[in-house]
Specification:
The termini are far apart. Helices cover 31% and strands 26% of the residues.
Length: 350
């Protein structure tokens, strides 16, 4: 419950409330009177044009630096038997803290005494841009927008969008049971084929969310594993194909890695969903369309995870050959004779 100050409108302001409802007044200023600490009438302006034409030229001059105030601005629309008004609470950052608190705690009283049903909008501002006509329009647009969704609701919404059927063609994205397949541009496809033939050791690709296609970011003919972490962006999702050439227990391996990097919630929800939904169709293209034998598929959050030790553990997981056998615990000592659960054959025959 908000704390109220007990400050009320003085008689002059109460009388003005009654007289300003005829439509002649466009805006008036209200301040808290020093000493008596009552709401008092300040400057006011008559209507000249439409409410939008009058707004900036009348509201902005009534604002004072370092001095909070209220403004009541009349619109041209009517409801509940009278004109609708906008209540503007002006509280500059550099005004005294006591005054800011005083005005914040008195607003509810002002609304009640003026008539809350006639106030259609309320805006608060510390700079002129918050309360000018553009600020009012931003406020109305924000108020009309749907309530913000939780992270889970956003993800479900994006999944539903991706489930909508689209026209299927050779060069268009299409829906599959595993996700959404985007077309891969010629330059990116050529790089993947060069990788498959051994001409390249590393290829990085991205989804262009506006063009809805997979594009080439870059490639390397030779890239040591120590240089791999630096290739992973920390602010965008990517697909990477890397050939990890290494020795293990006396043998030499050319291990092909598919790496999906997603730096957590640094990426927009749409980007996260598109990369996640497109991953399986893209892997299917690599394995079945280009006949690329992928040794291991990895998902990482940041490049620092891609150490040589990490890759070796993923490709050649250690097997525990000395796992102890399960030892059945012994029963309690001196527990007596075992209880028969089935009658002996001879006894059953009698």
């Amino acid at each position: 419950m908000s704390h109220q100050t007990g400050i009320k409108a003085n008689d002059e302001l109460l009388n003005f409330f009654s007289s300003c409802r005829n439509g002649n007044v466009r805006v008036f200023r209200i301040t808290i009177e020093d000493g008596t600490e009552a709401l008092q009438l300040g400057e006011y302006c008559p209507a000249e044009g439409s409410w939008e034409d009058d707004y900036d030229k009348m509201v902005v001059p009534l604002l004072r630096e370092k001095q909070p105030c209220y403004l009541l601005y009349r619109l041209d629309t009517q409801a509940h038997g009278g004109y609708q008004w906008v209540l503007i609470s002006w509280s500059p950052d550099d005004s005294p803290v006591r005054e800011k608190m005083l005005y914040a705690s008195t607003k509810a009283t002002l609304r009640m005494e003026f008539g809350a049903t006639q106030i259609s909008d309320e805006i608060f501002g510390t700079v002129v841009e918050d309360v000018n006509l553009s600020g009012l329009r931003r406020h109305r647009k924000s108020a009309a927008a749907p309530q913000p969704l939780t992270m889970r609701e956003e993800e479900m919404q994006e999944i539903k969008k991706l489930e909508v059927g689209v026209d299927i063609g050779v060069d268009t994205k299409h829906q599959t049971l595993a996700g959404v397949a985007f077309p891969i541009v010629t330059k990116a496809l050529d790089a993947v084929k060069q990788f498959a033939s051994g001409e390249l050791q590393y290829v990085q690709l991205k989804i262009d969310t506006s063009a809805e296609e997979i594009q080439l970011v870059g490639s390397e003919a030779n890239l040591p594993v120590t240089g791999l972490p630096a290739k992973i962006p920390d602010n965008a999702a990517r697909y990477h194909i890397y050939r990890f050439d290494h020795n293990y227990e006396g043998d030499f391996f050319h291990s092909v890695l598919f790496i999906y990097s997603m730096p957590g919630y640094a990426c927009p929800i749409k980007e996260r969903m598109l990369y996640s939904s497109s991953k399986n169709p893209f892997i299917d293209l690599l394995e079945n369309g280009i006949n690329l034998a992928i040794t291991k598929k990895l998902e990482i959050g940041e490049g620092q995870e891609l150490t040589e030790e990490f890759l070796l553990d993923e490709i050649h997981p250690k097997v525990n050959l000395h796992r102890p056998k399960f030892a059945k615990p012994k029963g309690p000592a001196n527990r007596g004779a075992k209880r028969l659960t089935k009658a002996p054959k001879d006894e059953a025959a009698t």
